[in-house]
Design brief:
Aspartate Aminotransferase, domain 2, Aromatic-L-amino-acid decarboxylase, decarboxylase, seven-stranded mixed sheet, alpha/beta, Aspartate Aminotransferase, domain 1, single chain
């Protein structure tokens, strides 16, 4: 029988899969004891990793070992120690769904080629549209992350609000809006001057009165205000803008209301989160990042748009070579809703963990993180050497050493992280160097948070 080297036998596939699954199970099992950062030995590893492939085949086990070493040489973004930036963890069931989806290699740019897998993604999107109380005309699509979801939303908003010329456009953000918004505006062809930074109130929320004043001034100066961008959980401090007030403003001014819920949106699944996110249901577009607060592995964002037709108007188009592909009635052709044509099946990575674990498991995990963030805030606020930010809206706690210079704050962060049990990051608030701790990885529980609190206090320099 002819054998083709690119087509492993059943026995070979099973052996490779089992070795890979074992490696992953060992990895996940070892996460509680893993160092928060392990970049030692990287210099020895890099030459082999950067080497081009040989003409001849190599041994699978050797290659698997190399992959394992490459993955190990990292900041431990999957473990309980990761409290920096915006964690997520990476659910095993999602990784498995992804492996299976990739193995089947289905095409989901048009519904007709893999309607089952498109339906799987749509089922999750429709559930999310319902969760956010969007009307039946709403639609959702899985993207590769929040930045691409934001770009997709802004192109739809630009098309609908501004038409073909938009050098006079204005969209409203704050200093704490994620950088992906300005980046998306630029990629969407808007000039840098279109991004208008609205002052915040003392509690770091967009000031609706200032926004109204700027919109009026911009109109008077001949600009065309188009989009209000609210953030449902800023990266810096986890702060939720006043979504009701900004929805009122957008409605009164007839602007597109975009909500960046990449970090905070999924807290809507909890009772506290739903209360704090009131007004999100009035958005024209919502960005969510399942690779943050739904704990998926990196690579999955979501865009929800209130009116399916507006997304379609921005991205749909015909091509002769697609003439054989009729649309599949109820299921969307995703290529008409985004800049992408070819895309993999993104449903299984969402669908499998949600159905396998059930939604309550996600609500409970998010509730647990809300409680843990309050615990951190309360414990640090009790220490007179530490100055804490406002009580967290979600799960980011900010703090700095009281009355100490910036260099000492940075050294404090280094000392906390050097123990290898937690990994925190910093930002600037009002220009001041500030440490931040974000509880969001699904594997972070009370034991690690207690360790983090002890380390933060224990590393305060004598002064
Ligand atoms: C509030 C917020 N918006 C948008 C993004 C961008 O999302 P992504 O990194 O998935 O592109 C992030 C990422 O951290 C974020 O925190």
């Amino acid at each position: 029988m002819t054998s083709y080297p690119l087509e492993p036998t059943r026995a070979e596939m099973l052996a490779m899969s089992e070795a890979g699954a074992r490696m992953l199970a060992d990895f996940v099992e070892g996460l509680p004891g893993a160092p928060s950062v392990d970049l030692d030995g990287l210099d020895d590893l890099l030459p082999a990793l950067l080497a081009p492939p040989d003409e001849k085949p190599r041994d699978f086990d050797v290659l698997l070992g190399r992959l394992q070493a490459a993955a190990a040489a990292s900041v431990e973004t999957a473990g309980p120690s990761y409290l920096a930036y915006i964690p997520g963890g990476g659910l095993f069931a999602s990784a498995l769904g992804e492996f299976l989806a990739r193995g089947h290699n289905r095409y989901t740019g048009v519904a007709g080629l893999a309607p089952g897998l498109v339906a799987m993604e749509q089922g999750v999107m429709r559930w999310l549209c319902g969760e956010f109380q969007l009307p039946t005309a709403a639609t959702g699509i899985a993207t590769t992350g929040g930045s691409i979801a934001t770009l997709t939303a802004l192109v739809a908003a630009r098309e609908h609000m501004l038409g073909e010329t938009f050098s006079d456009a204005a969209l409203y953000v704050t200093a704490h809006t994620h950088r992906c918004v300005a980046k998306a505006a630029r990629v969407a062809g808007l000039p840098a001057s279109a991004v208008r930074v609205v002052p915040t109130t003392d509690d770091l929320r967009m000031d609706p009165a200032e926004a109204a004043r700027m919109i009026a001034a911009d109109r008077a100066a001949g600009r065309r205000p188009a989009v209000v961008v609210a953030t449902a959980g800023t990266t810096d401090t986890g702060t939720i803008d006043d979504l009701e007030a900004l929805a009122d403003l957008a409605a009164a001014e007839r602007l597109w209301f975009h909500v960046d819920g990449a970090y905070g949106g999924f807290f809507h699944l909890t009772e506290r989160g739903r209360r704090r996110l009131a007004g999100i249901e009035r958005a024209d577009s919502i960005v969510l990042d399942p690779h943050k607060a739904l704990f998926l592995p990196y690579g999955t964002g979501v865009l929800l748009v209130r009116d399916h037709n507006l997304l379609q108007a921005a991205f749909a188009g015909d091509a002769n070579y697609l003439q054989d592909l009729g649309s599949d009635g109820d299921l969307p052709d995703y290529n008409s809703l985004t800049p992408e044509l070819t895309r993999e099946a993104r449903g299984p990575r969402l669908w499998l963990p949600l159905h396998l674990h059930g939604v309550a498991a996600f609500r409970d995990a998010l509730d647990e993180k809300l409680d843990l963030a309050i615990e951190v805030h309360t414990a640090l606020a009790d220490d007179p050497r530490i100055e804490v930010g406002d009580a967290p809206d979600l799960t980011v706690v900010t703090f700095r050493l009281r009355g100490r210079p910036e260099a000492e704050q940075a050294r404090w962060l280094e000392r906390i992280n050097a123990a290898g049990r937690v990994f925190l990051s910093s930002t600037r608030i009002g220009g001041e160097y500030t440490l931040r701790l974000c509880v969001l990885a699904h594997r972070t529980h009370a034991d690690r948070i207690h360790e983090a609190i002890d380390l933060i206090r224990g590393c305060v320099p004598a002064g």
